[in-house]
Amino acid sequence: MAHRLVHYPFQLIPTQTSIMADSDTCFTFPCTFPLKVMGQNNEAFEAAVRDVLQRHLGSSPVTYARRPSSGGKYLSLTATFTATSREQLDALYRELNGLELVVMTL
User: Fold this and answer.
1) The pLDDT value given to residue 12
2) Residues 6 or more apart from 26 whose CB is under 8 A from it?
3) Domain-wise residue ranges, the chain
4) pTM for this model (two decimals)
5) Is 3.30.70.260 the CATH number for 18-105?
């Protein structure tokens, strides 16, 4: 299995209700979170990503933005949603990165 990059794309200013993600990043939950997932530009990839997000987020609203690569071979799918905990984000990243169709998550 290929190694996949996992990256939390931004930092929030610490507050009393912040949860430390690591030594120099913290998140305040709930927060709006853009999750970018890249893979082959096909229906199976997009359907798999949406399925994982629906299982983890339930009926919470999700906004999707699609961006194909310049050659059209790959697709970047950005899902923006309200994250409720670090555990929720970790579970999403683990499951998405476990999919063979996913090349990278940011």
Assistant:
1) 40
2) 11, 12, 14, 18, 19, 20
3) 18-105
4) 0.75
5) yes
